[in-house]
Write a structure and sequence with these properties.
It comes from Corynebacterium maris DSM 45190. It contains 13 helices and eleven strands. By secondary structure, the chain is an alpha/beta fold. The longest helix has 22 residues. The site of 6-O-phosphono-beta-D-fructofuranose has 9 residues, from loops. 6-O-phosphono-beta-D-fructofuranose binds next to loops.
């Protein structure tokens, strides 16, 4: 068989581990070859591809962050308009199955291709951990570790200066990184997009700490957090070509408001893309490797229109339909249960 793979959407630690695992499994278990399209769907449309050999070079990418294939985003309209080109390119290159690695948007593209007769097996990725139908996506554990390390460090400097520290983490629509990093880092308040925040309540939680003689407070805020309606004036961002509202710095805005209300010294740290860069954790390397191997096997077994997923301890295949279902948000009750740790 001749397989093709590509990485699309925002990058995340573990993409290279998947690529390596696809190449090694295809080669050693089936004697198959693999090509990689560059820069996501754009490279497939423009027929830019490289052969991926089961050699030392590919072997060594296990620990490398980013993606050796490059990545990109393609507007859904351009994607749909290019489906015939994609089919022709795959056919001309003699590709028997395509394994796209990406988040919700990428998997939607995979589904459109599958609906048009392209043999596809998807691999879910995102640091946000919001893909439907899978317990965890690789990249998430690394992002949480990076954020937790940052929070650990902020505890000591916050305490030295009697400050409130705001840590803004990634998470446009979901608060998994904020919830887990906040819990692991012992944050005194965590704000997630799923549950609109009340600035009065956050301020009171910080005030209480200082009144009780605590010297500092740490607040973790997901970048997509929103206030309860009518409780706080917010800057409004522009809307980009993908319909995403650009962020206006929610961490800074919450920090400014707390400072204004209680006069405490406040500093804000925006972790941004640091959470997405660098080497994957051991957990993410293992998950990514298992996903890649399972996807290569599913392609050889012709389980097309599918997507690999983690179900408990097991790697399984689900349908692409399931993978592009509703985003996996933090259940409100799960957040409410974490509240007892605030303050
Ligand atoms: O991968 C998802 C994500 O990490 C979001 O949490 C974040 O909003 C987005 O990517 C930012 O990506 P970029 O800056 O590459 O557009």
């Amino acid at each position: 068989m001749r397989l093709a793979t590509l990485t699309s959407g925002g990058d995340c630690p573990g993409l290279n581990a998947v690529i390596r695992s696809i190449v090694r499994t295809a080669n050693t278990e089936y004697g198959s070859t693999v090509v990689g399209y560059q820069d996501g769907w754009v490279g497939l449309l423009e027929d830019r591809r490289v052969d991926l050999y089961d050699d030392e070079e590919v072997d060594r990418i296990l620990l490398r962050g980013g993606t050796i294939l490059g990545t990109g985003r393609l507007h859904p309209d351009k994607f749909k308009a290019g489906i015939d080109t994609v089919k022709n390119n795959l056919q001309d290159a003699g590709i028997d199955a395509l394994i796209p690695i990406g988040g919700e948007g990428t998997l939607k593209g995979a589904k459109w291709l599958a609906d048009n007769g392209v043999p596809v097996v998807g691999v879910p990725k995102t640091i946000d951990n919001d893909v439907s139908g899978t317990d965890y996506t690789f990249g998430f554990d690394t992002a949480v570790s990076v954020a937790t390390d940052a929070i650990d460090r902020l505890h000591t400097t916050a305490e030295s200066h009697d400050r409130v520290m705001i840590v803004e983490v990634m998470g446009r629509n979901v608060g998994w990184i904020a919830l887990h990093a906040g819990m692991a880092g012992g944050a005194h308040y965590t704000v997630i997009p799923e549950v609109p925040f009340n600035i009065e309540e956050i301020t009171k939680a910080m005030q209480r700490r200082f009144q009780l003689g605590e010297k500092y407070g740490i607040i973790v805020v997901a970048e997509g957090a929103v206030p309860e309606e009518g409780t706080m004036e917010m800057s409004v961002g522009d809307v980009d070509q993908f319909g995403h509202t650009t962020f206006t710095g929610i961490g800074q805005q919450i920090g400014d408001e707390i400072k204004r209300r209680i006069g405490q010294d406040v500093r804000t740290t925006v972790l941004g893309h640091i959470q997405r860069g660098g080497t994957p954790t051991a957990y993410d390397r293992v998950l990514a490797t298992r996903y890649g191997a399972h996807a290569a096997r599913a392609a050889h077994e012709q389980t097309f229109g599918s997507c690999v997923a983690l179900n408990g301890e097991d790697i399984v295949t689900i349908t692409l339909e399931e993978a592009i279902g509703d985003l996996k948000v933090v259940p409100v009750q799960r957040y409410e249960n974490a509240r007892s740790l605030f303050g």
